[in-house]
Amino acid sequence: TMLPQCSSRDDAQQCWSAPPYRPVKILIDDKIPFLKGVLESFAEVLYLPGVEMTPELVRHADALIIRTRTTCGERLLKESAVKYIASATIGADHIDAEYCRKRGIAWSNAPGCNAGAVCQYVAAALFACAQKKFLQLRGLTIGIVGVGHVGERVASLCQALGMQVLLNDPPRERTEGAGAFTTLERLQQDADIISFHVPLNSAGEFATRHLVDDGFLKRLRKTPLLINTCRGEVFDTAAVRTALAFGRLSGAVIDCWEDEPKIDLELLEKTDIGTPHIAGYSRDGKANGTMMSVRAVSRFFQLGIDDWKPTGQGWQDPTSIQIDGQNKDQERVLADAVLATYDILAGDRNLRTAPGSFEQLRNQYPLRREFHNYRIEARNIDKTALSALAKIGFRMSGGHL
After folding, report:
1. pLDDT, tens digit (0-9, with 9 covering 90-100), for 139-187
2. Which of 67, 197, 210, 231 is catalytic?
3. What is the per-residue DSSP string for 11-61?
4. The model's pTM
5. Which of the following is catalytic: 40, 172, 209, 260?
6. Catalytic residue at 231?
7. Which one of the listed residues 69, 153, 277, 295 is annotated catalytic?
8. Beta strand ranges found along 146-255 (DSSP E)
9. Is 277 an annotated catalytic residue?
């Protein structure tokens, strides 16, 4: 039986007053998909936009399930009863971990939940830029800064595309040894493309805020394409804008921006591809983030749904892509397959048309399907190309790989 629910934020104060039997009270960002109806049998639940979570509403909540748009620190939590915060996101810089520790508030994020989606975004961006600039990706050198869940997936993708891959991750290098890692200086010297997948650290030895500043850009030997799908503050907006204007960069793909949602329009104009912070927006990634959050809340409050996963809603339905490789080289075959799964330029056009609607475009962005949902029906494609498609993550039909 579902517990009585708050119908809106306006009656939350009355709805959440402590009755003789007080169930867990959970405040949830209403843009988190696959979640409606899941927790209502176990808790009192209120859904509302993440930016509208106020200290007054949070005061009576036991748990929050949020995205990056809700900053959890002293201002929001000081007078609250919150015991647990679950962020259905790969990042966690919107949670003040030290304040939560002092207050005894446990929290979790969803590392790796959207790694496949970001990898798909980068693949689509690479092929779209290669076609625009008449480049062959095979043989180019890509530097990957930050080799966590996402960076590793991007590295595997680029190896499958025949690119030379340089990995930079100082924290991992310190723990694991130099091994496969290289210096940022080498990336600045050798990379044709540099893709960033770091967390946002504002201070300390491994600070990443304004990692790409004027000094970084002046040390570039080539004129690389830069890709930012991690955090906007990793790029110094003015420095990147100037570097593009003076030809120190061959281009930029930017999904994450400083001062979102009020983005720099001059920088948007100079980018090859600009999107409203949606690189990780796939049905699979969103479902993973929701699943990880529900399981974390269940474990903490002993709700008994520790193995819950999203079902139905069509998000697992298989889809086929027909690819005819007649008169096409391998790179064109791979490009056709990747771009059939995701029209990245549609998001670019929409943002350029209405940059002031950044938040609306982000919230209403259609969730795409990742590579593993697609089965390739191939004709006239050699084994090398089929193998590359399989390494990227596609499934093969019939007797193919």
Report:
1. 999 999 999 999 999 999 999 999 999 999 999 999 999 889 999 999 9
2. 231
3. GHHHHTS--SS--EEEEEETT-TT-TTTSTTTEEEEEE-GGG--HHHHTT-
4. 0.89
5. 260
6. yes
7. 277
8. 164-168, 193-196, 225-228, 251-254
9. yes
